[in-house]
Amino acid sequence: MNLSEIQTLIKFVSKSGVNEVELETKDFKINIKAGASKVEVAQMAMPMNYQPQAMPAAPVPAATAPAQAAPASAQVEAADDDKYVTIKSPMIGTFYRSANPESPAFINVGDEIKPGDNICIIEAMKLFNEIESEVSGKIIKVLADDATPVEYDQPLFLIDPS
Fold this sequence. Notes:
This protein folds into 2 domains: 3-44, no CATH class; 83-160, CATH 2.40.50.100. The protein has helices at residues 3-16, 65-81; strands at 20-24, 29-34, 39-44, 85-88, 93-96, 112-113, 118-124, 127-132, 137-142, 148-150, 155-160. By secondary structure, the protein is α+β, with helices and mostly antiparallel strands. A 4-stranded antiparallel beta sheet has the order 4-11-9-6, with no helix packed on it. A 4-stranded antiparallel beta sheet has the order 8-7-5-10, with no helix packed on it. A hairpin with a 2-residue loop joins β7 and β8.
């Protein structure tokens, strides 16, 4: 049964004054209930071999050459990052690089760290949690901005362990 046949059946039910029509075949079941001023299709199961008409796909704009070059440089950078250790946030909160706005950052790019060194503070529920390094190495990159929210397991620093 196609859509036009269903619409014809609904019109018939509304004009005939019948309150309810139920039609069942091996492929589908349809139950049409008519109220005082409306007709309602209560239940309809599609046949097992039903294949909806494909919607035409939206045209995809052609990619430009600079856009194609960007992923290649990202892949090279990702390959370089594989040799580094990522320090991730152990909790949700606000990331701070220093103890207060007037103090210098705990660590900067190029600094050597060892396990137990304070590397940042994460404020969660008005508690300031000092985050200590669990690895030793050299700071390659700071991945979070100062005084910004961070999520659990969000990368904060890249460390070169060698």
